[in-house]
Amino acid sequence: TDADGQLALTFWLRGVRGEEWAGAHSIPYRLGLEDGRLVATPHPDVAAHRSEPGEDGLVQGRAADIEWPASQGLLTLASGGETVVRINRDGDEAVVTTGSDSCHVPVDGAIRLIADGPILELSSPAGVFAAAIEPRGSDLQVSASCGSLEVHGLL
Asked: Which residues of 83-106 are buried (b: 16+ CB within 10 A; e: fewer)?
């Protein structure tokens, strides 16, 4: 449980590494029930560390909290002028492409993305997904082909 007595969890992310480390903890998630289904949502404390929304999807630094409610379209995360992640959403499925790897991920409702250096976490009421990413620069640029987009840096 968290400090408020609510069910919460973090999990270990494998396949993420740096020069002198391997693996990482996820961000904290709060657990709840929606329509009889177990749902993990980013803990409210994560939003407490947001900066003001990034202008034109630009975030100084390599940590961002992104909300994308579109039911279809393409979201791109770039760093140093190079595409790092592509998320192609079509209804209840998103194809997440990082480098040469692609994964099909079930999604429902709005998608929330947390980018933190070499880690990307995607969550929606349908589940949670994490992947290793390789930011190329000191900033992040987020764009979407349709729908609104809310992009915050994380402090």
From this structure: ebbebbbeeeebebbbeeeeeebe
Per-block average pLDDT, block size 10, for the chain (155 residues)?
96 88 95 95 97 92 97 98 97 96 97 96 96 94 96 96
The beta-strand segments (E) located in 1-155 are 8-9, 12-17, 22-25, 29-34, 37-42, 50-53, 58-60, 63-68, 72-79, 82-90, 93-98, 101-106, 111-116, 119-124, 127-132, 139-144, 150-154
| Longest Cα–Cα distance in the chain | 44
CB atoms within 10 A of CB 65: 23
Quick one: DSSP state of residue 47? H
The predicted structure's pLDDT at residue 38: 95
